Each structure stands twice: as structure tokens, then as C-alpha cells.
Amino acid sequence: MPRLFTIIAAALAFLGVALGAFGAHGLAGTLEANGRADTFDTAGQYHLIHALALLGAAWAAERWPGRAARWAGYLFLLGALLFSGSLYLLAIFDIGFMGAVAPLGGAALLAGWLCLGLAAWRGGR
């Protein structure tokens, strides 16, 4: 699992950098017209932070094998997809109901951090 988490984290970070560049250069007019440039920036920040968090979960799963570290990785991935993904869609396409999806992703991210802390506290037990 640590290797898979590392591969996914690298892909997620690559996509985060690519979307950030596209947002700054290719979508600037659309984001300004929608009034959602800040929303896009927030999506990008959480996207990249949680790509690194997934990398941390990969390390933790190697260091402290157990369910908590694995669940941290799953939750970071799910949370990044739901939270950042919904904000990207809201910012680019102005799809209003996507704002209601973001809190689900945020909850998954929070749960991921709790699981990562639990993995460290328990030491893989």
C-alpha cells in the first residue's frame, strides 16, 4: 500500500501543479468572470497540501503498518477528490450545488488527519 499511495500522491501533486498553471494562465478570464478565482485558489491549496499528506500516509503505512495509516491514505485521497474537485467544478463551470459537496470532502480530510495521528499514537497496533 505505501508504494501505491506514493504513486497516487505523485500523480495528485502533478495534477495540482498542472491545474494551478492552467488556472493562472488559461482560465483567468473565466474565473474572474465567474467571480471564483479565490475558490479555484482554495481548491489548489488543499489539493497540493493533501497530495503531500497522502505521501505522509504512505510513509506512515510503511513505518506503522496497520489500519489507521491505510485509512488515512484512503481518506486523504477521497477528501482531496471531493473537496478540491467540487471547488474546481464550482469555480470553472459555476455549478452551484458543488458547494454542497465540499464539506463532505472536508470531513474526509479531517478524518484522514485523525487517522494519521492515531497511527502515530498507536505505533501500528
Descriptive report:
The chain has helices at residues 2-25, 28-34, 37-63, 67-93, 102-122. Helix 1 (2-25) runs antiparallel to helix 3. The two termini are 17 Å apart. It is elongated and about 50 Å long. The chain is built from 5 helices and no strands. It has one domain (2-122). With 125 residues, it is mainly α.
Structural class given helices, strands, pairing? mainly alpha
How would a crystallographer describe the biggest sheet? none
Mean pLDDT: 94
Strand share of the residues? under 5%
SSE arrangement:
Elements: H1 2-25, H2 28-34, H3 37-63, H4 67-93, H5 102-122
Features:
125 residues, mainly alpha, 0% strand, single chain
Q: Short description, anyone?
A:
With 125 residues, the chain is mainly alpha-helical.
